[in-house]
Design goal:
- The chain is of the alpha/beta class.
- It folds into two domains: about 5-175, NAD(P)-binding Rossmann-like Domain (Rossmann fold); about 185-430, N-(1-d-carboxylethyl)-l-norvaline Dehydrogenase, domain 2 (Orthogonal Bundle), CATH 1.10.1040.
- It has 20 helices and eight strands.
- The chain has an eight-stranded mixed beta sheet, with helices on both faces.
- Helix 9 (about 210-220) packs antiparallel against helix 10 (about 230-240) and helix 16 (about 350-355) packs antiparallel against helix 17 (about 370-375).
- The radius of gyration is 25 Å and the shape is globular.
- Bound molecules: 6-phosphogluconic acid (6PG).
Length: about 475
């Protein structure tokens, strides 16, 4: 019977949990899954009106005009799904892609699907399994008409912020906007996680504290300016004991971080747009270095190291350093969003992005209210660091960031994200940088010309003579 209001194509962890979330709101939802095992799990767990094994049956189960939510692994599988779906759909139907798709693919797919008179929504979904089940943050991009078709469902299943607002928004007219915003969310997520990991390292290696003692410190940071999902996660993870050995499980986890690519894409996008996002890029590189476990062991045996103690910094300084580093990472992420919006004519409202991230998503944090307020007060602000509330926070916390980076450098403990944040800040607040010398070098070897501080125009000089 064609009565499902929405069909979820792909019933893996995220798809199945979103389907359950949708069904919980009294919305009839149908599912499609190729893999028989996953289909069985979905049939058992999900209150689906049907969990189909054939695509035609799935499409037939949907009420017209139909809405299909793709919850499949980003990449070629999305193109394949679209190509198989298109002949079965009719003009007026809509497809939403809820995966972590590359925003450029999304732009291409929107154009492709539009040829068939079908609407396309790029839908960033954040919050992992738990979020999908009980309330994710949903970052949508697409035409108003396409979004309206799904709006009631998206508002119903999304996380709700403390003020009751649903974290589901149409952030732009182009489908790509939804996935671009999700990609930058993930870039900030990478930086936030790396900053926390560096503070953990300074407490563990630098101060010799065990996981339980570090958990207590993170616990104390759960309230206050650092309050966030990732701080909660950290405190909780540090408390978990290995059932077999009784040791903190985190101590037994291999120190090699994986990645699926969204952090890397965020860094590439920043570079392409000409925006500095070093805290994000360093977080990506730190994962890469972490993955070189064999090489690192060999190098550790080859080189002598300074005494790794970093006892000179206090917990309060570490908290402030973390906050300062985090503000810089957010400043970078929002600067990339602003530049992408400008370059593509997206008219992205940064305060709405910040509001969307207040609940449900991985980077949800108390201070996103302040970020939203900063961009509401002044949508044209050049950089988050210049918003009065953040300038004040930075002025208060940068001395601690400097002390912590200094201690880490002395102890030989790598803090790439903290030090990239500090360098970003120091560069941004320097009225004069050594780029004068770079311009002179460029002009010397490439006749690239330079500007002068004392008169207008472009100049070229024969630098080989002293005057
Ligand atoms: C989220 C997460 C989620 C996932 C990413 C990042 O917002 O719910 O960002 O999308 O964690 O895939 O994963 P990697 O760390 O593997 O790149």
């Amino acid at each position: 019977m064609a009565d499902a209001e929405i069909g979820v194509l792909g019933l893996g962890v995220m798809g199945r949990n979103l389907a359950l979330n949708i069904a919980d709101r009294g919305i009839r939802v149908s599912g499609y899954e190729r893999d028989p095992d996953l289909r069985k799990v979905a049939q058992r767990e999900a209150a689906l009106s049907s969990a189909n094994e054939d695509l035609a049956g799935f499409v037939a189960s949907l009420r017209a005009p139909r809405a299909v939510l793709l919850m499949i692994t980003a990449g070629p599988a999305v193109d394949q799904a679209i190509e198989t779906l298109l002949p079965l759909l009719s003009p007026g139907d809509v497809i939403a892609d809820g995966g972590n798709s590359d925003y450029q693919d999304t732009a291409r797919r929107e154009a492709r699907v539009r040829e068939a008179g079908i609407g396309y929504l790029g839908l960033g979904v954040s919050g992992g399994e738990e979020g999908a089940r009980h309330g994710p943050a949903l970052m949508a991009g697409g035409s108003a008409e396409t979004y309206q078709r799904l709006e009631t469902i998206l508002l119903a299943i999304a996380a709700k912020a403390d003020d009751g607002a649903a974290c589901a928004e149409r952030l732009g007219n182009a489908a790509a906007v939804g996935h671009f915003v999700k990609m930058m969310h993930n870039g900030i997520e990478y930086a936030d996680m790396q900053l926390i990991a560096e503070i953990y390292d300074l407490l563990a290696r630098g101060q010799g504290l065990g996981a339980a003692a570090i958990a207590e410190i993170f616990d104390a940071w759960r309230d206050g300016p650092l309050s966030s999902f990732l701080i909660d996660v950290t405190a909780t993870v540090l408390r978990k004991a290995d059932p077999e050995t009784g040791r903190p499980l985190v101590d037994l986890v291999l120190d090699s971080a994986g990645q699926k690519g969204t952090g890397r894409w965020a860094s590439i996008a920043a570079l392409e747009l000409g925006v500095a996002a070093p805290s994000i890029a360093e977080a990506v590189s730190a994962r890469v270095v972490s993955s070189l476990t064999g090489e690192r062991s060999a190098a550790a045996a080859r080189f002598s190291r300074p005494d790794a103690s970093a006892n000179s910094v206090t917990k309060e300084q570490l908290a402030d350093a973390l906050l300062a580093g985090k503000i810089c990472a957010y400043a970078q992420g929002f600067a990339v969003l602003a530049a992408a919006s400008e370059a593509n004519g997206w008219e992205l409202a940064l305060d709405r992005v910040a509001r969307n991230w207040r609940a449900g998503c991985i980077i949800r944090a108390g201070f996103l209210d302040d970020v939203a307020a900063a961009f509401s007060d002044n949508p044209e602000i050049a950089n988050l660091l210049m918003a009065p509330a953040f300038s004040e926070m930075m002025e208060r916390t940068v001395p601690a960031l400097r002390a912590v980076v200094t201690a880490a450098v002395g102890a030989g403990i790598p803090v790439p994200a903290l030090s990239a944040s500090l360098a970003y800040f120091d560069g941004y607040v320097s009225a004069r940088l050594p780029a004068n010398l770079i311009q002179a070098q460029r002009d010397f070897f490439g006749a690239h010309q330079f500007k002068r501080v004392d008169r207008a125009g472009d100049f070229h000089e024969d630098w080989s003579t002293t005057s």
